[in-house]
Specification:
The complex is a heterodimer of chains A (about 110) and B (about 120).
Chain A: E1 4-7, E2 10-12, E3 19-25, E4 33-38, E5 45-49, E6 53-54, E7 62-67, E8 70-75, E9 84-90, E10 97-98, E11 102-105
Parallel strand pairs in A: 2-11
Antiparallel strand pairs in A: 1-3, 3-8, 4-5, 4-9, 5-6, 7-8, 9-10, 9-11
Chain B: E1 3-7, E2 10-12, E3 18-25, E4 34-39, E5 45-51, E6 58-60, E7 68-73, E8 78-83, E9 92-98, E10 110-114
Parallel strand pairs in B: 2-10
Antiparallel strand pairs in B: 1-3, 3-8, 4-5, 4-9, 5-6, 7-8, 9-10
Classes of the chains: A mainly beta (about 110), B mainly beta (about 120).
């Protein structure tokens, strides 16, 4: 099983600031990595697929990079609606696995 | 508009069974892998199972293998998750999701509580 880790666990930032979230896989997942945003009481929302492709309707301030084992989600200028938990997920191998999440708060 | 509507959750005793359903609309179900993902209260996301377009392949997380069965009825635009021998640790919100790779669309979730 591929173990996904995320850092930091919590990221405290101010609106307008840049946020950088990291995700690491225990072995290579190529570019088969997705990022999700989840707000309290809501289902997750796909942000990024294939490591760097924004999903439909996702604002350009969200960007993804990386391949192999190390990945980054960058939010260029945080908006109030971006405060949430962010999960990475690999889909290169069964079982599909998620990281533990990074909480982005003020 | 893509829609996935999860249903069938509830309170069940340990060792009991429950069948979850997911009704989909706005896309051609038979063209997509589909998945179930769960989230225990206050915890992160855990993939549970995925099924191929024609139902010929299914994959499960180890913790539910042999107890849960995922199935689909493309003609009825529906997915199912039959859950047997339920344990307290299966307590979670269960989401159906489109695809088995990047999960592009999600249902609203249905809460399963396993408790005596």
């Amino acid at each position: 099983e591929i173990v996904m880790t995320q850092s930091p666990a919590t990221l405290s930032v101010s609106p307008g600031e840049r946020a950088t979230l990291s995700c690491r896989a225990s072995q290579s997942v190529s570019s088969n990595l997705a990022w999700y945003q989840q707000k309290p009481g809501q289902a997750p929302r796909l942000l990024i697929l294939a490591a760097s492709t924004r999903a439909t309707g996702i604002p350009a301030r969200f960007s993804g990079s990386g391949s192999g084992t190390d990945f980054t989600l960058t939010i260029s200028s945080l908006q109030s609606e971006d405060f949430a938990i962010y999960y990475c997920q690999q889909y290169n191998n069964w079982p599909i696995t998620f990281g533990p999440g990074t909480r982005v708060d003020i | 508009e893509v829609q996935l509507v999860d249903s069938g959750g509830g309170l069940v005793q340990p060792g009991g069974s429950l069948r979850l359903s997911c009704a989909v609309s706005g896309f051609t179900l038979r063209s997509y892998w589909m998945s179930w993902v769960r989230q225990a209260p206050g915890k992160g996301l855990e993939w549970v199972a995925s099924i191929k377009q024609d139902g010929s392949e299914t994959y499960y997380v180890d913790s539910v293998e042999g107890r849960f069965t995922m199935s689909r009825d493309n003609a009825k635009n529906s997915l199912y998750l039959q859950m047997n021998s339920l344990r307290a640790e299966d307590t979670a919100v269960y989401y159906c999701a489109k695809s088995a790779f990047a999960l592009t669309d999600w249902g609203q979730g249905t809460l399963v509580t396993v408790s005596s």
